[in-house]
Amino acid sequence: MTCAEELPSKPGRDHDVFEVCPVARAFEIAGSKWRLTVLRCLHLWGEQRFNELQEASTADSTTLSRVLKELEEQDLVDRRLEDRPVATYYSVTERGAALADVFDAYEEWALEWTDAEEPTPRPPE
Question: Domain range for residue 73?
Answer without folding.
Answer: 17-108
